[in-house]
Structure formats: structure tokens, C-alpha cells
């Protein structure tokens, strides 16, 4: 065992160097790479060789995964109007606002598209509010979405339902009611009597009306009484 250990040490230390064997005065076998008197060179067996299997070329490390565009926002919600809110506006105006976390990434081309009853209301905007105008009376659904530069939706807000209360155009007091438009035709006369303005004066006609003019004076109707006055000389 001692011999084997010694050989291993010698092999490790000398590698390809020459090895000499000698016996000292005590009868001990000595191995050395330095030749001494009476030492004999030892023929060492060929050292075993090992050729490792070439390792496959490892691909370059993948870059750190960036945050997915679809996960760019944590929350998005409508804050105005409230769900099931009744909005009284004769002009049909509805103010809408949203909250977004984190903030809108405008530099990435992200915009907010508002919707009314499932249809886009206006163009995509880079702000968190909008104003709908002339919304018809009745119940409507309001929604919003964050979209990218290609118009793809990134995150959607939960829609809310609102009720628009506005005066009907048929109401008598509504100035938009056609029945409340003033009659602008001044040239017509009513059945019982009217007024017609001409180049020669004003004539009032009727069953018992009076006709007057600048040249003819005044006269009574067929069933009325009156007088005609003329300037001197006629």
C-alpha cells in the first residue's frame, strides 16, 4: 500500500520526468527524479490519456424577459358616471372619466377609446376624460379601452349603464317643438279678417271690416257704415 501511494505521489509530481529507484542503508526503496549512486532508472508505463467529449456550443443567454405589452397596466376603470346613474341634460351631455394604473404610456402610442352602446365615441385620445354630446334620452351603456398604436385593445374597463333624462321635443314648453315656431308669413290673412300691406296702403277686409288707404280714404264693408273723405279739389 505504501508502495502504491508513493508511486502515485511520484507520478503526480513528476508527470513525464524520469524516475530512479534506489535502496538506502536501511533497506528502504527510494524513488526519486534525481539520479543517485547505485540508482536505477525505472521504466514508467505510459500515462493514460483522456479526451473529453466536446461540449455543445451553448446559445447566448436570452435577454431578460421584458414585461408583456398585454400586462402593461394593472387596473383600468370608469369613475364617472356612476353605474345606473340618471343624468338630466336637455342637451344630452355626458361627462366620462377613467382611472388607469400605471399611467397611460403615451410615448408607446397608447390611447384611450371611449364607447357608447358598443360603438366608438369620437377618436382615441391621450387623456383620461371625454364628453359625449347630444346623447338621446333613454338607457345607454358607456365603456372604455386602452388601445395600442395598431388599435388593438390592451385592457378594458367594465361598462356602466346610465339613464339620460332630457325634455322631449314634443313637450309644449320645449323651444325645439315645431309647434312653438313663430309664423313668419306676414302676407297671409285669416278667415275673419287679416292685414295685407301693399304699395298703396293697408287694406283690412272682412264681412263687416273697414278698408283704408292713402289715396282712397276709408270705407265700410258691404254690411257696415262709414264715410269716404277726399282732399279738396276732387
Q: Which tags fit this structure?
A:
234 residues; 16 strands; six-stranded mixed β-sheet; mainly beta; Immunoglobulin-like; 34% strand
Radius of gyration: 55 Å
Q: Based on helices, strands and strand pairing, what is the structural class?
A: mainly beta
Q: End-to-end span in angstroms?
A: 171 Å
Strand content: 25-35%
- Order of SSEs: HEEEEEEEEEEEEEEEE
Number of strands: 16
Return the average pLDDT rounded to an integer: 75
Apparent shape: rod-shaped
CATH class of the domain at 71-165: Mainly Beta
Which CATH architecture of the domain at 71-165 is right? Sandwich
H/I helix tally:
1
CATH topology of the domain at 71-165: Immunoglobulin-like
Largest sheet: 6 strands, mixed
Low-confidence stretches: 186-228
Helix content: under 10%
Describe this structure in a few short sentences.
This protein is mostly beta strands. It is built from one helix and 16 strands. The radius of gyration is 55 Å and the shape is rod-shaped.
Description:
With 234 residues, the chain is mainly beta. Among the domains are: 2-42, no CATH class; 71-165, Immunoglobulin-like (Sandwich). The chain is 6% helix and 34% strand. The chain has 1 helix and 16 strands. The protein has one helix spanning 2-14, and strands at 19-23, 29-32, 40-42, 75-80, 85-88, 94-101, 111-116, 119-120, 129-132, 138-147, 153-156, 160-165, 194-198, 201-205, 210-213, 217-220. Strands 5, 7, 8, 10, 11 and 12 form a 6-stranded mixed beta sheet that branches. The longest helix is centred in the N-terminal third of the chain and has 13 residues, at 2-14. It is rod-shaped, with a radius of gyration of 55 Å. The N and C termini lie far apart (171 Å). 7% of the residues are buried.
Amino acid at each position: 500500500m505504501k508502495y502504491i501511494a508513493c508511486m502515485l505521489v511520484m507520478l503526480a509530481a513528476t508527470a513525464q520526468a524520469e524516475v530512479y529507484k534506489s535502496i538506502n542503508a536501511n533497506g528502504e526503496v527510494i524513488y526519486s527524479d534525481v539520479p543517485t549512486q547505485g540508482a536505477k532508472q525505472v521504466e514508467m508505463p505510459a500515462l493514460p490519456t483522456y479526451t473529453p467529449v466536446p461540449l455543445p456550443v451553448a446559445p447566448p443567454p436570452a435577454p431578460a424577459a421584458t414585461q408583456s405589452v398585454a400586462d402593461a397596466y394593472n387596473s383600468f376603470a370608469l369613475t364617472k358616471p356612476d353605474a345606473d346613474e340618471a343624468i338630466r341634460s336637455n342637451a344630452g351631455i355626458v361627462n366620462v372619466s377613467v382611472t388607469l394604473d400605471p399611467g397611460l404610456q403615451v410615448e408607446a402610442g397608447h390611447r384611450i377609446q371611449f364607447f357608447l352602446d358598443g360603438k366608438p365615441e369620437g377618436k382615441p385620445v391621450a387623456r383620461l376624460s371625454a364628453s359625449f354630446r347630444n346623447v338621446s334620452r333613454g338607457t345607454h351603456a358607456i365603456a372604455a379601452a386602452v388601445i395600442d398604436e395598431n388599435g388593438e385593445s390592451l385592457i378594458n374597463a367594465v361598462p356602466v349603464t346610465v339613464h339620460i333624462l332630457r325634455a322631449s321635443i314634443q313637450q309644449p314648453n320645449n323651444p325645439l317643438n315645431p309647434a312653438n315656431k313663430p309664423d313668419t308669413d306676414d302676407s297671409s290673412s285669416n278667415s275673419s279678417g287679416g292685414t295685407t300691406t301693399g304699395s298703396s296702403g293697408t287694406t283690412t277686409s272682412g264681412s263687416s271690416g273697414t278698408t283704408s288707404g292713402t289715396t282712397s280714404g276709408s270705407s265700410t264693408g258691404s254690411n257696415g257704415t262709414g264715410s269716404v273723405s277726399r282732399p279738396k279739389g276732387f
